[in-house]
Amino acid sequence: MGVPMEGETIQIHSYKHNGHIHRIWEETTVLKGTNTVVIGGNDRTMVTESDGRTWITREPAICYYHSQYWFNILGMLREDGIHYYCNLSSPFVFDDEALKYIDYDLDIKVFPDMTYVLLDEDEYEEHRKLMGYPDVIDKILKANMEKLIDWIRQKKGPFAPDFVDQWYERFLTYRNF
């Protein structure tokens, strides 16, 4: 597995358990790239869905991917504060093509006051049956969901005060205005 270089622009590819592409983010600027963590930033980037539809993100986001945890975290900078969208997913891999992970449907939305809501439990159960998620994957995802909730409650990692703001300042140094 390669390591993306700081300042490099990469794509992010999200897959489903069956190997089919789920979503592609066209441009994310790498702010930190190691074997274990990739932190990126993007703003108004094109996203392509599996059915070919495209849309543009509405606000700047700081993205956090880890090679050992089964989740990734997006911190979106909005006028009323930082909103987080957390995907339960496989750990990331990076190759010459993109940063890649498998999206396992379950999501946690975190509001600026750090309250949160679990999303897409029905979709997870439907896809678990349809795509045959093994029991071991189910156990790993549930354990990582607990770890993610602990991070939210403890304001750890990307949920720490100033984490997103500090990385956003670094992202702005790479922007061409």
Automatic annotation (TrEMBL):
Keywords from the UniProt entry: Hydrolase, Magnesium, Metal-binding
SUPFAM superfamilies in UniProt: FomD-like (SSF159234)
Active site (UniProt): 23
Gene3D superfamilies referenced in this protein's UniProt entry, alphabetically: FomD-like (2.40.380.10)
GO molecular function, one term: nucleoside diphosphate phosphatase activity
Residue ranges annotated for the DUF402 domain, each copy included: 18-156
Enzyme Commission identifier(s): 3.6.1.15, 3.6.1.6
Residues binding Mg(2+) 1, per UniProt: 87, 103, 107
Binding site for Mg(2+) 2: 105, 107, 120, 123
Known catalytic reactions: a ribonucleoside 5'-triphosphate + H2O = a ribonucleoside 5'-diphosphate + phosphate + H(+); a ribonucleoside 5'-diphosphate + H2O = a ribonucleoside 5'-phosphate + phosphate + H(+)
Record function comment: Has nucleoside phosphatase activity towards nucleoside triphosphates and nucleoside diphosphates.
Family: Belongs to the Ntdp family.
Protein name: Nucleoside triphosphate/diphosphate phosphatase
Organism: Caldibacillus thermoamylovorans
